[in-house]
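User: I'm putting together notes for a lab meeting next week and I want to include a structural view of one of the chains we've been expressing. I don't have a solved structure, so I'd like a prediction I can at least talk through. The sequence is below, exactly as it appears in our construct file.
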Amino acid sequence: MPQDFLPRIESMRGIAALTVVGFHVSNQFYAGPAHGWFDGFTFRMLTALLNGFGAVVIFFVLSGFVLARSLDANSDPARFFRNRVFRLFPAAIFTVTLLTVLHWQFGFYIDDEVSFDAPNVILNLLMIKSDINRVMWSMTVECVATPLILLSVWLFHKHGERPLWILVAVLLGLSPVGQYSHLLGGFTTLAPLYAFVVGVLIHFRGARIASLIGPRLHTASIIAIAIFCFDSISS
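Assistant: Thanks for the context. Below is the predicted structure for the 235-residue chain, given as structure tokens.
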């Protein structure tokens, strides 16, 4: 098995991806009234499990973890940025180009109709905006997080974990502030940006944290799942 392949990480990514898909599918049923108690109960259970935003935050934590691991293996920033460009941009360029062609030819668009003029298309191709395909907002945040992850790894090697905890606290504190979270405009939110730094911390200090939790790890996992579900219901 390749040394860089972590089956549990890939499993978590798969579960998070299915959760996001389920979240978007469940949105189609919000407008309709519940037909009886069982229908209402089932819908609330699905809502609890399909916390789409929470799943995206998990993705961001995993990205921080995996990319910190990659930087530890090879700290060359040029290689790091090059790999991120070739990982993120081809899929974005293909998707935006396809949707633009479909709109020009057939008037097709997703959700609300947006501008398909050249400047807006270019901004979407560069993932500066994500209004042509809203779900690409998370890829925009991934782009913004690239230098943040590089900085976090450098800070850890230079000054230890303390600056990273401070960075997490600052970014988490800013997350409810609209001027910060909606800085890029449109549907992109920077509120979960802190999650990437958490992922970097897990790479460097995750084993120590797990050892401190020890036999209480299963209880902590159950509590984390309960918080994940409750957050989806309450929002």
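A couple of points you could mention at the meeting. The chain has a mean pLDDT of 82. Residues 77-106 form the longest helix (30 residues).

User: Perfect, that's what I needed.
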